[in-house]
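Chapter review: from sequence to fold.
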Amino acid sequence: MTNGARILVVTVALAAVTGFASGQSMISAKSGLIHYVEGRVLLDGQQVAQKFGNFPQMKENAQLRTEEGRAEVLLTPGVFLRVGENSAFRMVSNQLADTRLEVLSGALLLECAELLKDNAITLLYKDASILLRKDGVYRLDTEPPQLRVYDGEALVEQGGQALMLKKGKLLAFNGIFAAERFDNNVGDTLFRWAKRRAEYVAMANVSAAKSIRDSGSLWQNSGWRWNPYFGMFTFVPWRGAYNSFWGYRFWSPRQVYMVYAPPMQASSGGGWDASRSYNSSLGYSTVPRTSAGTSGTLATSASAPTTATSAPSASIPRESGQAGGRGR
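The token string follows.
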């Protein structure tokens, strides 16, 4: 291939990515975007192929089924549905204000980074209706049939009875309408896969939130944002920062600067010590140079995140008027 041909190919590829990024910063106002698949996943009997920038949208009454595979589906902004192997569900309604899923078989796990006040998620299983009430992590299995609330709060209605299920509680659909305790730190392969997916999406959040901040554009509502570097959508909150159940942080454009701004150190006399300023090429002036760059003796150096996507250890103040969800 000639140099001219190579330049042409790269130019076209960059144009495609740029066009996708600018044209699809936020996905359509419906639940059910098939965001990621592994192995054999079927949508209405047709195998879903994983392609860059291609995300099938589930229509109402569409059925998603996994065999030897898994799937991640985006519901309302901030809500991820992760489907285990040999599982199936039907999209009863894909409206953001009233998203309803009928669980047919297997195991479904939902991570809610934020539940916006005008959105609603309801799971249906046989004669039971489950309304998610708060941010958190929820799992519904059919073998044996049970609902687990790892974090958050869900309202369960069945046979004329209602029960509010909270963090660390389990409800078995066995005719005994009573909550039980379970260890919400223990999981299986689906739980661990969901945790890994949560980490990847949170990593993509950092540069996505920064791109919004750098562009100067207004980000007036929490929503999905396309990240061309990761080839995926990520969740970007409107204000503040959100910690997921697994501890991964989603930054808003207002707060993401804290990832990139170096920490400052207080002087013994009060105020900030300018002599301990940060130099991107030398590191902190108070830390001796070594072959690795620093001595590693300073607490901030030893605990500093290894990548820009790790959240700083400092707590993030909650801003007044925060939209939906909760800062954790």
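Two observations follow directly from the output. The first strand starts at residue 33 and ends at 43. Helices lie at 3-23, 189-215, 257-260, 299-303.
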